[in-house]
Amino acid sequence: MSLRERIVGAWKLRSYTETPVDGTEPFHPMGPNPKGIIMYTPGGYMSAQFMLAERANFAVNDFYQGTVEEYKAAASTYVAYSGPFVVDEEKSMVTHSVFVSLLPNWIGNNQPRLVSLYGTVLTLSTAIPIQSKGKSVVSKLVWHRAEPA
Questions:
Q1: Average pLDDT of span 43-48
Q2: What structural domains and CATH numbers belong to the chain?
């Protein structure tokens, strides 16, 4: 079975670590117990969403009536993007072509990820360092295959 066929399905986030390339201590931008889901469809689309597990509610239950501070806190503790994906079997790499994203800068760009898949554990790492919290880092997200809903 190909890598592309093996990653199809839903995966729940278990850990998210960023390791600075300058050798300083790795950190967990979404805390020690992030929540998230990534899905790959047989038709070639993906969607990823992950967040800090404990997030503050808005003062009012209206998405469009939050304060600037509430929006800032919500956006800085959540990552979401979706679009088509392609797999390079030889390089064990998946490339997410971003169609929609919470971070507008990603729209229209590719997000390549190195893939490691053993049993029900999927590890995705940035193929090249990215910028995060002012540092150049390598991100590593570990996912476990989700049970059927």
A1: 99
A2: 3-145 (2.40.128.280)
